[in-house]
Structure formats: structure tokens, C-alpha cells
Write a structure and sequence with these properties.
By secondary structure, the chain is mainly β. The chain has one domain. It is 13% helix and 34% strand. It is built from four helices and 15 strands. The chain is globular.
């Protein structure tokens, strides 16, 4: 088992841009563009030594990471949007009885906290699926704000708050009620978690479990926080359209 007692840097790779994937700094706002989306992103990570110039709102929040994404769809993606995490360098997860038991507890907690359609797979190279855990975007994100043309969207790197009544309504939406995406509006959405400590590569704060070293599950495979579209429910790489990915490599 790899022991990591000190705060260490992680590598964040911004994927699915028009150019080659590029390494970006944590806690900084970066611009990006691809064939489907143009906008800005910020990957906030809690640090223990000092607070960065942005993401200072972490000081008062019980969270370890937050993904903030803002921009405009250049064309409307076909199918349903999913947000979550996947392993990019591991074709399948083969776990023993103890680790599978721990994994089942983790998955159960995540499914209880999620409001939408949760989809997970241990990975199957024969059909082209990576190990992943995702949920429908409308129900998954913590904040989802639509800014009309001519209006100013909320600034990234700060606390972003959707109206609480609207948030509750959105998270209860069924797939057939999802609003149609538009190309003229600016979308801002955030996803945050207190359950993963990327600087110590551990799962934390799960009820009934101590800190769990993620190397035990997938060794040194990077973890990709991904947003993609699927038309028919098939989550294989050949059937989905990737919009954005933040690939994090362990320290």
C-alpha cells in the first residue's frame, strides 16, 4: 500500500479541447474550446498549507474538490448528458472480496446522494466501456445556472449559488422533463465533493469507513472527471460524445 502523509501536487490534464490535452493548474480559471463547447473552467482543490487567489470560499466549506464550468454550447449535443468519473488507464477493475465489499459501500452511499439516473460499470474491454460512475447532468450538479444573452454570468473561482427552490425542483426532474439545451445561453454548473482527497489519493468521509487509499482499487490509473452525451444508453467510448474531461493523475 502506498502511504501518503504529506500534501502533494496533483497533475490535472484538460482533455477534449481543439488542441492537444494540456496540463492546467488547480485553483485557476482557464479558457478552452472544442467542437461542442466554448468557455472557461476552474478545478478547485482544497489545500492545507495556504489559500489560493481563487477558490477562497473553500475555507468555510466542507468540501475537498469543486469543478466549475461555464460557457456556451456551439451545437446542441445529441442524447442525454452525463457527469461523473472514469478510469482512463485501466480497462477493467478486478477486486477481491474485501475491496469489492468496500466498493459496494461507496457505491451505495453515492447512489443515495444522487438524484438522477446513476450508471456505473467495472469496465469491459470487449464492449469498449471504461470503469466509470456517472449520473445525469441535470440531477447531478450542485448548481446549474442559465444566463440569458446580454446578462452577466456568475464569476468562476467564487461561491456559486443557484436559487435553492430552483435547485430542488431541478434535481427532482425526470429525463423526459429536462429542458432543451440552447446555443445562445451561457451555462454555469458546478460539482463538488467532500468524499475524495486527491492530494492524498483517498476516499474520505464515508459513513462507517476510515480513509481508503484509492491505489488499492485502481493503482496509479488517472481519474477523469468527464462530461459526455449518450443517445441510446450505451456508455461505450464509441457510442458517446465527450464534451470535457479533467484527468487527474495521483501525486
Amino acid at each position: 500500500m502506498v502511504k501518503m502523509s504529506k500534501e502533494q501536487d496533483v497533475t490535472i490534464l484538460l482533455r477534449n479541447t481543439l488542441g492537444s490535452p494540456s496540463v492546467i493548474p488547480a485553483n485557476r480559471i482557464v479558457e478552452f474550446e472544442n467542437s461542442l463547447f466554448v468557455g472557461k473552467a476552474c478545478f478547485c482543490i482544497r489545500t492545507r498549507s495556504s489559500l489560493p487567489p481563487v477558490c477562497e470560499h473553500f475555507a468555510k466549506k466542507n468540501r475537498n474538490i469543486e469543478v466549475q464550468l461555464q460557457g456556451r454550447f456551439k451545437s446542441v449535443p445529441k442524447g442525454r448528458l452525463y457527469l461523473g468519473a472514469e478510469l482512463t488507464k485501466l480497462s477493467t477493475m478486478k477486486l477481491g472480496m474485501i475491496l469489492k465489499g468496500i466498493g459496494t459501500i461507496l457505491l451505495g452511499t453515492i447512489r443515495r446522494l444522487s438524484h438522477g439516473e446513476v450508471h456505473y460499470d467495472w469496465g469491459d474491454p470487449s464492449v469498449g466501456t471504461r470503469p466509470h460512475l456517472v449520473s445525469t447532468l441535470w440531477n447531478m450538479v450542485d448548481n446549474f445556472i442559465v444566463t440569458e444573452p446580454g446578462d452577466e454570468p456568475p464569476p468562476l473561482g467564487t461561491e456559486i449559488n443557484e436559487d435553492n427552490t430552483e435547485r430542488k425542483r431541478r434535481k427532482r426532474l425526470r429525463p423526459e422533463k429536462y429542458p432543451a439545451l440552447r446555443t445562445d445561453a451561457t451555462y454555469t454548473f458546478t460539482f463538488q465533493s467532500m468524499y475524495i482527497d486527491v492530494q492524498k489519493w483517498s476516499a474520505v468521509n464515508f459513513p462507517g469507513l476510515k480513509r481508503v487509499d484509492l491505489h488499492r482499487f485502481w493503482k496509479d490509473s488517472p481519474l477523469n472527471f468527464v462530461l459526455y452525451a449518450v443517445e441510446e444508453g450505451d456508455h461505450s467510448l464509441s457510442s458517446r460524445t465527450d464534451i470535457l474531461g479533467f484527468e487527474i493523475s495521483p501525486p
